[in-house]
Specification:
With 355 residues, the chain is of the alpha+beta class. It folds into 2 domains: 4-127, Gcn5-related N-acetyltransferase (GNAT) (Aminopeptidase, 3-Layer(aba) Sandwich), CATH 3.40.630; 133-322, Aminopeptidase (3-Layer(aba) Sandwich), CATH 3.40.630. 33% of the residues lie in helices and 27% in strands. Strands 1, 2, 3, 4, 5, 8, 14 and 15 form an 8-stranded mixed beta sheet that branches. The chain is globular, with a radius of gyration of 21 Å.
């Protein structure tokens, strides 16, 4: 009998490809069953001798309001069109929620699309309205980027995708004002750190990076970083800033499957040192340019020092008035406390399963 990770990988292949991360069985085996914190769960529904719907739950270790807790992300909620509106997705999501609760996990969150958002709202999930999680882009090679997109449109190659890329291009143009007046604190003084690319985290890291200053923060320790980036079947580049043996921050990026777009997946600096963040972003841009990448994208919480730094570096919101929702299961005391507490978060694309 085939494993659930293999069944889910085959089922996921029936839908459009994800150009930014794997949808192969080995990805689900890594995410769900090789999880270092607690084994997750894959819920599948079979009808008419085939898989027609799925949902998953993935445990994470977080610091919530100064306390270490297990949390879980709900994801991969997708149903074949002929089987929608029959309560199947609701049933599978409820199974995932019950599994998490049975393991003592009282914090369940997700970053759903609009279709899943309506479904999960019926199950007790609510949006964190005080969190604005936004997409930003920057063109690294404007002329090459534009000619590549236009060339593919003329060749009638994946027209819908290329039109989306054209829209991204014009949304990500660097304004003259930002180009002339950008502020880069890392250039004002001699750096007390060195930027290097790592192949594995060998040093112990407490994972807190200067807490407490966030009410919600995934603990980025040695176990998490090695599992998330180096044991992952996808390939990531991780840049670190170190002063001798002390970690001052890191940034992770990867390339899409066509090697046209670079995505900054994750970042954090000790006590939010923005000079270190600037240096990490600059090094990532330099490496991506050398790899022939045209466009770089990042998701960042607004109203943070990181967001302001990215604006200074020429990054622009794709849709300034539209944000990716972050939802919390509201039927636990901890879930309620998150929704009511409006303190700062640190949340990146890597805190979701979208990269």
């Amino acid at each position: 009998m085939e494993s659930k990770s293999k069944l889910l990988g085959k089922y996921r292949g029936l839908f459009h490809d994800n150009k930014f991360r794997s949808i192969e069985p080995k990805y689900y085996e890594w995410k769900i069953y090789q999880n270092p914190f607690l084994q997750g769960k894959i819920c599948l529904e079979k009808r008419d001798h085939r898989i027609v719907s799925s949902s998953t739950i993935t445990p994470k270790k977080i610091n919530l309001l100064g306390e270490v807790s297990l949390a879980a992300e709900i994801g991969d909620t997708i149903t074949l069109p002929p089987y929608r509106r029959q309560g199947i997705s609701t049933k599978l999501c409820r199974q995932c929620i019950e599994y998490a609760l049975s393991k003592g996990i009282n914090i369940i969150y997700g970053t759903p699309n609009q279709l899943s958002l309506r479904l999960l709202g019926k199950l007790g999930f609510m949006k964190c309205d005080y969190i604005a999680f936004t997409s930003m882009t920057k063109t690294l090679k404007p002329f090459l980027c534009l000619t590549s997109i236009i060339g593919k449109i003329l060749l009638l190659k994946n027209i819908k995708h290329q039109l989306q890329q054209l829209r991204l291009f014009f949304k990500s143009r660097i304004s003259l004002k930002n180009w002339l007046y950008k502020k880069d604190p890392s250039s004002k003084k001699e750096n007390d750190y060195k930027i290097t690319e790592l192949k594995k985290i060998r040093d112990d890291i407490d994972g807190l990076w200067g807490l407490p200053r966030y009410s919600f923060f995934t603990i980025r320790d040695k176990a998490y970083l090695n599992w998330r980036y180096f044991l992952n079947p996808d390939h990531y580049h991780i840049l670190t800033a170190k002063n001798n043996n002390d970690f001052l921050g890191y940034l992770v990026f990867k390339l899409d499957k066509e090697r046209e777009i670079g995505t900054v997946c994750d970042f954090i600096t000790l006590n939010d040192r923005i000079d270190v963040f600037y240096s990490l972003v600059r090094e990532a841009e330099k490496m991506l340019k050398n790899m022939g990448v045209h466009l770089i994208q990042i998701m960042c919480l607004k109203n943070t020092a990181y967001y302001k730094a990215l604006v200074n570096l020429g990054y622009k919101d794709i849709l300034p008035k539209s944000h990716r929702p972050i939802i919390i299961y509201s039927k636990t005391k901890k879930g309620e406390s998150i929704l009511k507490n409006t303190s700062k978060w640190h949340f990146t694309l890597a805190d979701s399963d979208n990269i």
